[in-house]
Amino acid sequence: MNQNAPIGIFDSGIGGLTVANAIRLLMPQEKLIYFGDTAHLPYGDKSPDSIRYYAIRISKFLLDRGCKAIVIACNSASAVAFKALQDFFSDRTIVINAVDPLVKAIVSDKDIHTVGIIGTKATIQSGSYARILQQKASGLLTHSLATPLLAPMIEDQFHLRDVSTDIIASYLNELPLQELDALALACTHYPLIKDQISDLLVSHKIRILDSASPVATELKTRLLESGLLRVNDSEEDSEFYLSDKTESFEKSAEMFFGSSITINEADIFTGQI
Ligand code: DGL
After folding, report:
1. What is the model's pTM?
2. Lowest mean pLDDT: which of 18-22, 123-127, 228-232?
3. 146: which residues sit within 8 A by CB, 6+ positions away?
4. In this structure, which CATH number among 3.40.50.1820, 3.40.50.1860, 3.30.565.10, 3.40.50.620 belongs to the domain 7-97+213-265?
5. Does the first or last residue of the chain, that is N or C, have fewer Cβ atoms within 10 Å of its Cβ?
């Protein structure tokens, strides 16, 4: 594997851009190839089998482009498809998921004894966070809540409207807020509403954690360990692919990566795997 090969990143839509952005800030010399599976979002409402199928197809597409690492920048896909991707591809590339790095960030903070976890139905129903957190820190208490309206709302830019605050508040009020030391945003879309969540939790002392920078840090560690950190300093443009071009994706990608980016549509779901 070549140090100057790109890093592949995927999500159902714009959520993974929060992770791509953290990777770019930590390792600006790396070339990124991003795939947003906008034709199939929201992943959170799909069955584990469907999500695994999409994840395998996308990973194959990224591997065909020579990616030295594949970052599952989606908690739903990480929760149900990580093992399948490891089984299929880890002999050819590094595979990083979004769950383990966030778990690591939670358990390494010794002030966190009780944590709320919000994510899509797929993530929460998989039980991954509660299970892995229990394995790593058996005394930690978890309160998990599926918040299925949030990712589609963010994807549609609806979170920029006032009404979204009521939806977020209504979900948060289902959690035992008085008991929480931290809230884990277990969906890569949610950093885009982090400010609204902080405002709503202002009277509580609750740390808000998300996957973006823990994933970037984990990726850097793995690249370093494998001698695959890019050595070439010349900046290369990132590439963006969508299974269905959406205006919302273009706006968000421009917000993070500037207006000069090109977004391509890629039909990767037809034909044999
Ligand atoms: N951003 C994704 C996640 O972290 C998926 C959201 C969705 O498509 O439902 O779970």
Report:
1. 0.96
2. 228-232
3. 44, 118, 119, 120, 121, 123, 124, 125
4. 3.40.50.1860
5. C
Going from the Cα of 114 to the center of ligand 1, the distance in angstroms, rounded, reads 24
pLDDT > 90 fraction of the chain, expressed in percent and rounded = 87
Say if residues 106 and 210 touch (Cβ distance below 8 Å).
Answer: no
Closest atom, ligand 1, to C-alpha of 15:
1
Same topology between domain 7-97+213-265 and domain 100-211 = yes
Residues assigned a catalytic role: 74, 187
State pLDDT tens for residues 86-95.
999 999 999 9
Candidates 117, 188, 192, 248: which one to mutate for ligand 1, based on the most atoms within 8 Å of Cβ?
188
Pocket residue to mutate for ligand 1, from 189, 210, 215, 249, most atoms within 8 A of Cβ: 189
Asked if 179 contacts 116 with a C-beta cutoff of 8 angstroms, the reply is no
How far away, in angstroms, is 50 Cα from ligand 1 center? 14
Q: Which amino acid is at 211?
A: S
Which residues have C-beta atoms less than 6 Å from ligand 1?
Answer: 11-12, 15, 41-44, 74-76, 119-120, 123, 151, 187-189
* CA end-to-end span of the chain: 23
The domain ranges of the chain are 7-97+213-265, 100-211
pLDDT of residue 120: 98
Give tens-digit pLDDT for 228-257.
999 877 778 899 999 999 888 998 899 898
Architecture of domain 100-211: 3-Layer(aba) Sandwich (3.40)
Q: How many H-runs (helices) and E-runs (strands) does the chain carry?
A: 11, 10
Ligand 1 atom showing the smallest separation from residue 12 Cα: 8
pLDDT at 113: 98
97 Cα: distance to centroid of ligand 1 (angstroms)? 13
Token readout for 171 is 């979900």
